[in-house]
Amino acid sequence: MLTGSKTLRRAACSLVLLLSSCAGGLAQTASTSAAPNLAASNLAASMPLYAAFMAGNYAAGTGHDHEAAQFFDRAYSLDPTNPMLLHQAFVTALLANSPNAPALARRMGNDPLALMVRGNALLASGHNAKAAAVFKAMPPTGVTGLIRPLLLAWTEAGEGQFDRAIARLKQSEATAPFGPVYALNAAMIGELAGREAEAAPLYLIAERAFPAPNLRLAQALASFRARQGQHQAADAILVRMVASHPDLRLALDALEADASRPMVESAKQGAAEAYLTLAGSLDQPQQILLRQLLLRFALRLRPDLSAARLLAANLDMARGQSAKAAATLGRIPASDPLYGPAVVQRAQILAGMGKGAAMVPALEALAAAHPHVSTPIVLAADIERDAGHYASALRLYDQALARLGPNPPGSAWAIYYGRAIAEDKSGHWPAAEVDLKRALAIEPGQPFVLNYLGYSYAVRGIHLAKAQSMIEQALQIDPNEGAIIDSLGYVLLKRGKLAEAMREQIRAVQAAPNDPEVNAHLADIYAAAGDYLAARNQWARALSLHPDPAEAAKIRAALERDDHGS
User: Fold this and answer.
1) Which of 10, 95, 106, 468 has the smallest number of CB atoms closer than 10 Å to its CB?
2) How far apart are CA 183 and CA 336, in angstroms?
3) Gap between the Cα atoms of 368 and 374, Å rounded
4) Please, where are the H alpha helices in 176-230?
5) 354: helix, coil or strand?
6) pTM of the full structure
7) pLDDT tens per residue across span 23-67
8) Contact 40, 56 (CB under 8 A)
9) Cα end-to-end span (Å), the chain
């Protein structure tokens, strides 16, 4: 079986409510979509308590945050003394950006998330001293203990108490594993106060702690260096960051041009950076919702913080919310330095949803603006190929390979592989075979290429021993891939080794039970073995799995041949 497209896997989400004094809620998973917001609102308004509670759990578990907020708001309104319902109403309101969240936060007492909501609102309106009083009530230990010094320092900076703010972070820097982050924030506060000499050694602490800086650290360091007239040093920091994060290569020129601008120009922007830093530092699967909430806080304080949107989109994907992730990335404007990576990531997400065609013009425009980068044009080619637009795909693959020059990098195997698929599908097998061999020359042992070439030989009834050897080599690298097991079963069928073919094909069906082509190949083996009843049942099973038109036509033709044969 041919393997040509990447599949985006959806992750089931669970409503784990963190940083809270109350217990969390139940969660369920499902693949169906919830009703539109208005319909959910109308439905929620008339629901009894238990129904609203169960609907809220279902909506939360399936990633429909707005609907979950509406259902839990209804449940809480029917039982306003229930602390669990208050907690669930509050957290889902936060996830949905509901206007009810501030009022619910006021009822949550000293719940850390509620304190952050209240403090953020005061900070955003310029009431720094009042915000500090709220943030001081946060626990000084655990996850909240990491961000508490940062929030307090930025409120102090907002009040002009720079000495106090820097001293607080220096003290924290000396005692906590989060120390380099405190040093970085102290440096930014020093710059905000106009104390570049005091900021410089603090920036150096942060720089030395992270040999491969992340995006925001690199931007902060480069910004400081550029505004000190050290433009080459600033560019070198950004180049080092891109070397560790190649997905940001498209942003490099814009980041270099943007480096002379101060990264933080107010207390609320500094607090937004603190929330982003904490969200980026947490990496446990059960912390996904907490990280999303922290990013919402960051974006409320600083809507132009595109790094937070990139991270939020990744977390949306982790919760199985592809459409939401794409929408999150779509809010990054073309004027933003991170626009290029956002377009590529959004196109990848939409391609996984079968909606990538809409992104091809943006990808081609991005490719034209970055003539030395191949990523957007290769992605556009892949999308066009998967859509069956083979002529367009071939044109784009040719352009991508032309950009790589005579000595393509190791990653170029994927471009030759993609072009080979488009050539094969458009009836140019000799050219496809050449490209597949080129891909293997660049990346020997690449399992997808070995499988495609071996299976293609089997389909054509040529080089069958070589085909089997290639497919077996691919299986040594990826032993549980159903498509490759299917290819082995098929080539064994072609070689007349029916018992072995049956064994491998049953294993392929077990690995990919809902793949129509894999099931059809098992039917072919049953028919070759003379078990026509089993073959007909298996072909019928394959048809029920909604194969593409070409595969469906082959299955129907097999059934007709079986009718005439029997």
Assistant:
1) 106
2) 27
3) 10
4) 179-192, 196-209, 215-227
5) coil
6) 0.84
7) 233 233 223 333 445 556 666 777 888 888 898 888 888 888 889
8) no
9) 28
